Amino acid sequence: MGAQNQSTIEQMMLAIGQQARSASRAMAKASSEQKNRALLNIATAIRRDAAKILAANAVDIKRAKTNGNDVAFIDRLTMTEKSIENMALGLVQIASLGDPVGHIGAFKKQASGILIAQMRVPLGVIGIIYESRPNVTIDAAALCLKSGNAVILRGGSEAIDSNTYLAGLIQEGLAAAQLPAEAVQVVQTTDRAAVGKMITMTEYIDVIVPRGGKSLIARLMADGRVPMIKHLDGICHTYIDEGADLDLAIRVCDNAKTQRYAPCNAMETLLVNTKIAKDVLPPLCKIYQDKGVELRVDYKTRKVLEDSGFVHLVDASEEDWHTEYLAPILSIKMVEDLDEAMDHIEHYGSKHTDAIITQNQAHADRFLREVDSASVMVNTSTRFADGFEYGLGAEIGISNDKLHARGPVGLEGLTSLKYVVMGHGEIRQ
Fold this sequence. Notes:
The protein is of the alpha/beta class. Helices cover 45% and strands 17% of the residues. The protein contains 15 helices and 16 strands. It has helices at 3-29, 32-48, 50-66, 71-77, 81-96, 135-146, 160-176, 193-198, 214-223, 246-258, 274-290, 299-307, 318-321, 338-348, 361-370; strands at 108-109, 115-122, 125-130, 150-154, 184-186, 207-211, 236-240, 267-273, 294-297, 314-315, 329-335, 353-357, 375-378, 398-399, 407-408, 415-422. The strands form four sheets. The chain has a seven-stranded parallel sheet, sandwiched between helices. It has a four-stranded parallel sheet with strand order 5-4-3-6, with helices on both faces. A three-stranded antiparallel sheet has the order 1-2-16, with no helix packed on it. Helix 5 (81-96) runs parallel beside helix 6.
């Protein structure tokens, strides 16, 4: 890259940062009614222009196919009438949620006479760096808007047409609600130098939320100076416990893997108690193979399945237990008990989402307490681990960090707390 081009991108990013910082002050004091009106305006515009959004998305999809991107990549990029309607529904749901900004907890009186409480406040300016999924443009903008933040969105080059069109609808909705258009800005260049500048702009951006593949997030972690809310992998497990309800286990584990393959909350490893394996594995794995799922199995699982007439099994390698496939591939391992299952999850898991299928309440309680993941589930599909299903309206990402925000990050995760002190003329002795 030439020095002149580098300078141009730096100037562009600095201008975006300055505008976002200025807009963040207006957003912090915007009323709930004003923010909700903007959200509903955007939802109306999305429904009105659904056909135009699909047309813009078709340009992105054609380009991705020409570039040889794989099926999982295309799936993440593709928008449908249903996904567009879900974006609109997410906006409406976020508008219906309580506004966290300005909420003050209960005051506590101290011996000195002063009253202490905490007030929820916006983070300020949030930078979102993401790949493929154009719906992130709407979800992220909506959550940042409702929580009183300004946001800078930098989507992947593969979705530039979709993101640019959606950005125009967002700014239309903001303007109609008398809020600054600069409160939501989409970086228009696909040059990666823009990302490099963005992750160092500590004077303008308060937090970065990266959403994308492991290589992207690893790069941002290595080069970034702005704090991040992130997750690297979604290596999600389901453990079928001894004595589990077989019909429930089959139904849930089928859904956890095959409802959609590309999301980060899809199950990647199935753990099965040896005492129930002969009963549950053959009918469940028939469903998987009928749906075209490749099964990578340990030697115990291979024996059980081969005894039932299964072929086309692949021996699981050590690398498989560490892999987030995001594809119709599933690793399966038999374990002796709950402790071995939890040990496996601790060693190979990514602290994203893990589930147990059990009728044993003591085992369920132990799993909930001892599995160190952002979402831990009992008798349900890992596919529920997202903001919409958790009642957050949408999510800006799923964090498997432990500080500030963990799991699906919704409105409260995009705010912070400051202390407020009420006095009556007290002075410190």
